[in-house]
Amino acid sequence: ATITAKAGSATATCVVTVTPKIIAVESISLDKTSISLEELATQTLVASILPDTATDQTIAWTTSAAEVATVVEGLVTAKKAGQATITAKAGSATATCAVTVTAPTAGSIAITGAKELYATNEDMIVSLDVTMSNGVIKNYANVNLATGLNKPEGATISGFDTATDGKKSGTINIDSQTSTINYVVYKAVDSEATLRALLESTEKAPIIIGLTKDITITKRYNVARPFILYGITSEADKNISINTTADTRVFNFDASVSGCESLLNSSIEFHNITMEVNSTGTYLRANSFWGCGAINVIYDNAILKTNNYYALHIAEENNGAHFTIKNKSIISGWAAINLWSSETTIDIDNSTLIGTNNHSGISNDFTTIVVNAPKEGIAVLNNVINIKDSTINAIANAADTYQYCIDLRNESAKVNFSGANSVSTVKKDVTNKTPCYIRGFALTQIVGIESVTTTDVPPLPMFMTRTEVDAII
Predict the structure, then answer these.
(1) C-alpha of 279 from chain center
(2) Rounded to two decimals, what is the model's pTM?
(3) Do residues 426 and 455 lie in contact, with contact meaning Cβ atoms separated by under 8 Å?
(4) Which of 48, 69, 98, 290 could join 315 in a cystine, given CB atoms 3.0 to 4.6 angstroms apart?
(5) Helix (H, G, I), strand (E, B) or coil at 444
(6) Beta bridge pairs of residue 391
């Protein structure tokens, strides 16, 4: 405004500028005086100024340790573990918030590259993906579980070593998270002589062997100790092979030859191993068990094959034994399985059994799986065969002969089918007579037979009693 003073014709003026009354900030406060954050977490601080009519309400935000926590317009971002003070200033008034930043903890541990089998410490290399509690995933490559090389800071790794063979378990612990790896350490073998020395040793302690190359034998292994045998190869879908063209078995477990005392209640396992007898000699079983009691035997992705006799011979005095055939195993012979013991359980899962009859004449009819009848001095009782998701083939190669899929030659034998199973036959003309896939004493011996399918056209009778078969042939 202009103020004017006038006297007569004379005047004087004064320009008056009126400014607003400045209201100073008296105080500033924050909604938090202390906060705790994990690394990379954020939190917004809210400032309040008094009086709320203060002329200048601009707030300046600062941090005492930018490497620990930063602040922009009240938004605090945690950087790394430590302490920092956030200050809000308006005019001459200030308010502070103490910030504690903590390191995140492991939320989960993902392991890639872990293997089931190891031979040396140098093999025990994995990668770890650790998901932290703040969502960040930390990657650690080339971690040696045995030596701890390249492990995450603060991690505890224990239980990994290859000094001795065996089935083992190790743990990786980071903060409160623990991951467990079950693994197997094997003794690497690359020659027939070394394998024989280990299996026929007077040492009776169980041993785990990794066979790293195909071998040919000229005489059978008379095994006297429990063992687990792995075929070790980098080629996909390939087994390591033990074969013979000589008149011999591959593995012989015989109480009268090598002694089975150390095998009682122990395990024999074959993983990714092919055992094949390529001789035309007689009585050449691929694997034979005689007098070994309640032994536990596993064929896992294994192939057991012989030309003219039993591939798997479970002879007498293996009472209480348990045989498992699984994971795409193939058992092939005149009989794939010939059973003479009692109280024996055979589990067949996702595998193929093939019986091939090269012996002409009806008197030589035979079976892919046979459970024998008791005979003088040999009780063959209460055996159970469980078949799941598997295939049983019977092939009659010679003229005028039959080959059955399953033959139960005593009334106490039981077969349980589950899952998707199939049976099939390939047979020579036997004057148009029709055998069956399964023969036994009564259909009550078979559970789940209604779910078994066949590709044969026309299909054979699925089951016939032994009396009915004998009347036909």
Answers:
(1) 37
(2) 0.83
(3) no
(4) 290
(5) helix
(6) 352, 422
